[in-house]
């Protein structure tokens, strides 16, 4: 974390905790923006609309997220649910961009 944002272990006040959470939330949104950029790239690259939904890849992505959650001590069920929604939203977003690129 930055000089002004303390690590969770170093926080002594709720103000410090909230500053850390707010900064991390911003970083998470920035990472999501990058992830959706990859979805736009996929939409551009995939030649057929049917290729947008890949159930095997979806299962792989969710399994990897669950494994990482387990390794990091994060609630696996929560991560699985979140990634299910994230991947479905990503598929929908990619599909929309696939269509837009081919109008």
Automatic annotation (TrEMBL):
Pfam family for this entry, one: CM_2
A molecular function (GO) term: carbon-oxygen lyase activity
UniProt keyword annotation of Lyase present: yes
Biological processes per GO annotation: chorismate metabolic process; salicylic acid biosynthetic process
Documented EC number(s): 5.4.99.5
Keywords, alphabetical: Isomerase, Lyase, Pyruvate
UniProt binding sites for substrate: 18, 35, 46, 94
Residue ranges constituting the Chorismate mutase domain according to the UniProt record: 8-98
InterPro entries assigned: Chorismate_II_sf, Chorismate_mutase-related, CM_dom_sf, CM_II_prokaryot, Isochorismate_pyruvate-lyase
Name the record gives this protein: chorismate mutase
Protein source organism: Blastomonas natatoria
């Amino acid at each position: 974390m930055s000089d002004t944002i303390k690590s969770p272990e170093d926080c002594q006040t709720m103000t410090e905790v909230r500053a850390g959470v707010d900064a991390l939330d911003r970083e998470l949104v920035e990472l999501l923006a990058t992830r959706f950029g990859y979805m736009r790239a996929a939409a551009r690259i995939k030649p057929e609309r049917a290729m947008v939904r890949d159930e095997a890849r979806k299962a792989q992505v969710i399994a990897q997220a669950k494994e990482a959650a387990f390794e990091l001590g994060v609630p696996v069920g929560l991560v699985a649910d979140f990634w299910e929604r994230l991947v479905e939203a990503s598929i929908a977003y990619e599909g929309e961009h696939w269509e837009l690129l081919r109008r």
